[in-house]
């Protein structure tokens, strides 16, 4: 094949979930696709392969079986309360949000099910909010874990793309980095870029950027599905919004280096409008990976609600900033304390039941569909990967007494003086609130209330106990860092995934999907997410883009 002038119906930039879904749709429609990615074939699937596979579904059979009553109306109330849309630029994001909610309450599950995707029966409760009915958070559990996590979610789309390759419809071009969109009379008609040197980098590892040639491809349409900016800390800091305090100096990366945001600027040069760049979704429960795959590799703890959350000096975070309640509310609060790290203080009993680590590789039972290993989640002892972090992670302190714990915490944070007396007071005061079955402590009440949901009681929320009860020990402290993950803004698109220009009109030939398009519209989440909505946003916007291009050609 002559790579200098290859032609096809469509070029898809990015072989992550959004690009794979779009390509699979185009194969279904019999279109010829060039699927271009800067990474080697080993990284096919992008971030989604690494993901936990958590999907937001509304009123699913899994929810109903767990006794959860959900509805499109309730989910819409939650979504719009969390999104807080408040800009003129939110016109398309609002429409995408409504369309996505219809998808999540409608055909999303059946469409995935028919492709062989299955779900773990216990639905998780992410972003619990803790405010009033019309404020941020999920009123009910909606986080459905894909059986087999991220790798099983991408599998049907990878299979369809491979079938397309066999049928001569799809050509995948790895190590091709797009540097420019080719314009002809205002229309996008192809891409130009650099051929990168072959790389034996394993999945997720940074691959070399050595250029060994250039390429040019032409097609009737280009779909940009190049992901977000989370791997590019300079860009994250450049777009850091004032409302979240000062931009952090120390960041862990929750995504591989290829999530570099470069393609967004390239799309902008071709006339696409970027909106909501200041909206991002980063976590405050990041821990340093003791076994890193990429630089500054951090893992997010998906926490249950029981750990005591302290700022860097040892002061307890205010209501309702409990673990798993309000991601950005906590980030905003912490950034305004003047310190970037914070602490969880917990017990062995809590870590065993409440610590889940986000990422396919951190959940070998769910990822490997290994039932005997999975059964261990309800027996004593923390899951293997959590135990490994406890033993080998640099952010963990394990101690048999409070003074020993505090000394260990201070050692991990030599530059910030911990107020030992304050921490002891917080812990003893909190423990006193457990002498009755009722309490004034909002976190303890939240823990008790969570356990009235069967799924939480079963596998997610430890029975309330005193942190200083030796039977629940040893005591554990975890130093938490800010971890970059998702961009909520991106290329503005209409409901057909057509990229829009500054005049509000579609840029002919240009489409966008996945994180590059703010998961649809240029930011369908608004300011905040209800979780499990990113993979779903890639499925929906990738499908929309593929179908829209197929219809337009
Ligand atoms: C550890 C982890 C856990 C997660 N867990 C969840 C979860 O449980 N639920 C959820 O909803 N979301 C989760 N997410 C988020 C979700 O996985 C991502 O938002 C989503 O997969 C993004 O997909 P994408 O296709 O838009 O982009 P990506 O996966 O980033 O793919 C983009 C592709 O484009 C390529 N590319 C970029 N620029 C160029 C260029 N110039 N030329 C050629 N190629 C280019 C990249 O190499 C990459 O392969 C998680 C993410 C991670 C990392």
UniProtKB/TrEMBL annotation:
This is FAD-dependent oxidoreductase 2 FAD-binding domain-containing protein. Residues 9-535 form the FAD-dependent oxidoreductase 2 FAD-binding domain. Keywords: Flavoprotein, Oxidoreductase. InterPro entries: FAD-dep_OxRdtase_2_FAD-bd, FAD/NAD-bd_sf, KsdD_DH, Succ_DH/fumarate_Rdtase_cat_sf. Pfam families: FAD_binding_2 (PF00890). One of its GO terms (molecular function) is steroid dehydrogenase activity, acting on the CH-CH group of donors. It comes from Glaciibacter psychrotolerans. SUPFAM superfamilies: FAD/NAD(P)-binding domain. It comes from the Bacteria.
């Amino acid at each position: 094949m002559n790579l200098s002038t290859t032609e096809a119906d469509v070029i898809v930039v990015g072989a992550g979930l959004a690009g794979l879904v779009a390509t699979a749709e185009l194969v279904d429609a019999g279109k010829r696709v060039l699927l271009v990615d800067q990474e080697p074939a080993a990284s096919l699937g992008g971030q989604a392969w690494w993901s936990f596979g958590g999907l937001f579904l509304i009123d699913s059979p899994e929810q109903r079986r767990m006794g959860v009553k959900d509805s499109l109306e309730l989910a819409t109330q939650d979504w719009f309360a969390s999104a807080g849309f408040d800009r003129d630029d939110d016109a398309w994001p609002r429409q995408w949000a409504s369309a996505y909610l219809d998808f999540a309450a409608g055909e999303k599950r059946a469409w995935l099910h028919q492709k062989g995707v299955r779900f773990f029966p216990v639905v998780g409760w992410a972003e619990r909010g803790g405010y009033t009915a019309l404020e941020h958070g999920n009123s009910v559990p909606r986080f459905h874990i894909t059986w087999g996590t991220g790798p099983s979610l991408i599998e049907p789309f990878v299979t369809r793309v491979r079938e397309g390759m066999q049928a001569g419809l799809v050509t995948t071009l790895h190590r091709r980095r797009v540097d420019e969109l080719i314009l002809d009379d205002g229309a996008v008609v192809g891409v130009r870029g650099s051929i990168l040197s072959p790389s034996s980098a394993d999945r997720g590892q940074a691959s070399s950027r050595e250029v060994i040639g250039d390429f040019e491809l032409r097609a009737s349409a280009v779909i940009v599905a190049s992901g977000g900016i989370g791997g590019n800390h300079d860009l994250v800091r450049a777009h850091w919004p004032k409302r979240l305090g000062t931009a952090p100096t120390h960041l862990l990366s929750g995504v591989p280096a290829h999530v570099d945001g470069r393609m967004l600027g390239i799309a902008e040069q071709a006339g696409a409008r970027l909106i909501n760049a200041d909206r991002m979704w980063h976590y405050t429960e990041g821990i340093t990976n003791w076994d890193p795959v990429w630089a500054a590799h951090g893992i997010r703890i998906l926490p249950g609600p029981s750990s005591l959350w302290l700022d860097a000096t040892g002061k307890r975070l205010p209501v309702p900033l409990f673990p798993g309640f309000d991601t950005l509310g906590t980030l905003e609060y912490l950034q305004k304390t003047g310190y970037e790290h914070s602490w969880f203080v917990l017990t062995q009993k809590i870590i065993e039941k409440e610590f889940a680590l986000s990422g396919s590789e951190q959940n070998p039972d769910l990822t490997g569909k290994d039932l005997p290993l999975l059964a261990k989640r309800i027996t004593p002892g923390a899951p293997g990967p959590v135990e490994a972090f406890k033993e080998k992670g640099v952010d963990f302190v394990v101690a048999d007494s409070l003074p020993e714990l505090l000394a260990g915490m201070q050692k991990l944070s030599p530059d910030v003086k911990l107020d030992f007396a304050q921490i002891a007071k917080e812990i003893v005061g909190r423990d006193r609130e457990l002498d009755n079955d009722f309490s004034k402590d909002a976190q303890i009440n939240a823990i008790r209330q969570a356990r009235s949901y069967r799924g939480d009681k079963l596998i997610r929320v430890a029975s309330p106990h005193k942190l200083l009860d030796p039977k629940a020990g040893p005591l554990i402290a975890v130093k938490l860092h800010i971890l970059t993950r998702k961009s909520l803004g991106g290329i503005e698109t209409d409901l057909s995934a057509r990229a829009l220009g500054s005049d509000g009109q579609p840029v002919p030939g240009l489409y966008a999907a996945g994180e590059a398009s703010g998961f649809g519209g240029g930011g369908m989440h608004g300011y905040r997410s209800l979780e499990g909505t990113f993979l779903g946003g890639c499925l929906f916007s990738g499908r929309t883009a593929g179908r829209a291009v197929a219809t337009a050609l």
